[in-house]
Fold this protein.
Amino acid sequence: MLSLIRFAVMLQKLYPFWYDGPRIREKQEQSFRALLAHAAQHSPFYRRRLAGLDLKTCSLSELPILTKSDMMANYDDLVTDRRLKKADLSAFVDDKRNLGKLYINTYGVSHTSGSQGQPALIVQDREALNLVFAVQFARGAKLKRRFLPHLGRLIKPARMAVLTIAPGFYPSAAAFAYMPKFISPGFKVLHLTVSEPMAKNIRKLEDFRPDYITGYASALEAFGREEAEGRMRLRKLGCLKQITNVAEPMPDEAAERLEDVFGVHVTDEYAMGECLVLSSGCFTGRGAHVNADLAILEVVDEQNRPVPPGIEGRKVLLTNLYNHVQPIIRYEVDDRITMSDVPCACGSPFPRIAKISGRSKDLLWIEESGIRREVPYYVFLAPLHHVLDLAEHQIVQTGPRSFVIRAVPLAGKHLSTDHIRRLVMEHVRSEGLENTIDISIEIVPDIPRGPSGKVSRVKNEYALMVH
Ligand SMILES: [Zn+2]
């Protein structure tokens, strides 16, 4: 009962109608100072790093940058509870039976997939685990009224279908395993894993009648094709209110196609295991709003200099303002993000991420006389939109000027390499690149998913070789 009341208080504080620009900045500043003070006092690692700084007045840009390898190499010193040891936590997550269990009765444990290098361990207290659900309720969907907006959930629970991968210690899956029990009367969750047969997933989804569907872009698009071709009838059931894309960048055209097919808004969420509540999707436009009272997101260039809104950065620096047991301050993440330079039409006072483009190391480029020139993904993507029997694709850079396009046909359909080549080359020619790039097309039955179940649509294997 006590924990339910605490949750209700947490939820109440998160409702967006309490916030405007100054209030967000004030909240962010308070939480930032509290985090610095806690880290300097209880983490030997941060005590060393923050020595000599006036933690009450220093600016964020004065603080050193934290890489994942720094964090993992100094893990036992970085956490603020001396009982936590990397070796013990690694052993804990190696045993699947521990999923959903609190380590030493206190902490939720997850690990990132390692798709960006080595996996990172993330430890959070109960309060931080609950915050994932509180933020989802308060900011994940449009509220109908201001007075006790979630009371009705006890009569009519929210129904969310999650299309990801098999349960495991990956942050998004672990978050559901740590769902507080008192939430379950008001919040029903159906997990569908992308590796299950499609027909079985469709049946489950139709029976469940979800209000909300959350999933990886590739999974959402796969279900969209089933609906478009009449093998799924979710729209007819009239239950669906919103679709949320997480974890993989989704091109605008794909989001628009999903909106056409399902008749509901498709929103994006940008988050990471190190901060699951980093943003909440915009209800009217593309992109997501940074929960700037809970985290600070800095968009920077290669040299960590700030990149202004409207311009795409090369990486981001994350500061998680609520995880005091594992302080994450100016943590470097290889994602290309563009912040919006205009106020959002939805009226949200939270800063909007206009575009999520993926990882910098998966940028495509050509090299001519030692000079690199970026080749935008759309050069390949735009012509592929005309390949109607295409189910999935992947563009892989394999040499200084060579690219492989892998194409998966829709079930029961065939693709022609000549047809794809002709469409792609027309586009490549219009970009003036016909003499500088070599393209080969491969028709494949499937594109292997990465360790966390995501499909990388753009991969630069050559960049990995030359680095
Ligand atoms: Zn918005």
